[in-house]
Amino acid sequence: MGSTANSLPNDTEWTVSKNFSTTVAFRIADGIDLYVPLLLSISGIVCNILVVMVMHSKYFRHNSTSFYMMVNAIVDTSSLALVLPAHWLYVNFPGLFVKTPQSHVMCKFFNFFGWGTSDLGILLTVAMTTERAIAVTLPLRVNSLCTKRRAKIGVAVVTVIVTVKDLHFLMTSVMVSRGEAEYLCEVSTENPFYSLFWTTLWPWIHNAFLLASFVIISVSNVIIIKHVNRSNRTKFVKNLCGQKIHGNTARLQSRGRQLSVMLVMDSFTIVVFTLPYSVIVTVMSSGHGTDDSDVDKLMYAVAFYLLYVNRCANFYLYCLSGSRFRDVLKQILCCCCCCCCCRRSVFGGRGSGSLWASYSHTSPPLSPSGLPTSMSKISVAVCMNPSGPD
Question: I need a surface site. Which of 28, 145, 291, 373 has the fewest CB within 10 A?
């Protein structure tokens, strides 16, 4: 009796501690579901639009790697604008969604589009890193091998691969039963053959896809980093010996190095932010868990939103690693500010739009301070003649 009486407080203390920890986990997951999607959607859409504008500028638009980056930003924007807001509405206001035959059609689109854009982003990174590795390995043939036309073909090929891989979501996706609060859509496993495929075969297919992609990305990054370091050493030795590099050659080499560094950082983050969700999906599809619904909810929320953090992070990585990206971005923002000032000074002026179009296509040179040299002239012209030329 004595030993039993002594054990009761310990059991009670363990139970209270467990309940408290699960309550904290639930509250953290609930807070993440409420605030993080809105922040990611708004900031990610704005940042990816800026990436598209920069990659479409005169300095970047003719480069095949820039084309891949622009397409990747468009894919990320579409996912942040369509899939993530629907997920946010469901996890926070589940009463807005009623399970009907039409809701199953909605889930077929959301599951296919969500998985498809995620896989497409990975394959675009694979294509970018592979192309960049070829460019730094064979610099004399880069103009013939790494063209914008080949990049367009590459985008079409990886889109077909992703469509074939994720096509089954269009046939099996349904809305979850009431009470499932972690996600809006799931796959129906009523068919025994598809149930076997989903629980046994699909995790292997998806993980093999990710493993192959990550291996190619890693090998390409090693090649890129090796050649970038070699190029930097060569440049240092030539400067030390007083040898000057031709202007056009120096600009091309600088552009290639910056694109390579931007791409290495992009590919590194996609591995870090994609892997946790893949592990969670594999564990959940196999029927294993932590035997704690609140902890499972928290783990799923963190892993799920890391996917979308990756869709927002490219802009900041490009700003951090690419000085030319920052310079072009500064031009765009300064020009937008000038256009806004013009519209505020003369409401409905018809010249601001044409001025912006002319400025964006001319891409004036930068001064040593990093600001456009013709910005002051443009500002004076706007203020002197806001209605445009006669």
Answer: 291
- Shortest CA distance to 136 belongs to which of 73, 226, 212? 226
Distance (Å, whole) CA 249 – CA 273: 36
Cα–Cα–Cα angle for 384, 388, 390, rounded to 5 degrees: 105
Q: What angle do CA 91, 96, 97 make, to 5 degrees?
A: 80
Local confidence pLDDT in tens for the 390 residues of the chain: 444 444 444 444 434 444 444 578 888 888 999 999 999 999 999 999 999 999 988 888 888 888 999 999 999 999 999 999 999 998 888 888 887 877 889 999 999 999 999 999 999 999 988 998 888 888 888 788 888 999 999 999 999 999 999 999 999 999 887 666 677 888 988 899 999 998 889 988 998 999 999 999 888 888 888 877 776 555 544 555 555 545 454 454 555 566 667 777 777 888 888 888 888 877 776 666 555 577 778 888 899 999 999 899 889 988 887 788 888 999 888 887 877 665 555 444 444 444 434 444 444 454 444 444 444 444 434 333 333 433
Token duo for residue 357: 């179009």
Q: Is 245 exposed, middle or buried (0-12, 13-18, 19+ CB in 10 A)?
A: middle
Beta-sheet pairing, 185-187 with 173-175: antiparallel
Domains and their CATH numbers in the chain: 2-321 (1.20.1070.10), 335-384 (no CATH)
pTM: 0.74
- Which string of DSSP letters, residue by residue, matches 130-199? HHHHHHHH-GGGHHHHS-HHHHHHHHHHHHHHHHHHTTTHHHHEEEPPTT--S-SEEE---SHHHHHIII
Angle formed at CA 298 by CA 125 and CA 97, multiple of 5 degrees: 85
Nearest to 32 by CA among 114, 111, 93, 92: 92
Residue with tokens 């013709």: 374
Determine the Cα–Cα distance for residues 217 and 378; give it in Å rounded to an integer: 44
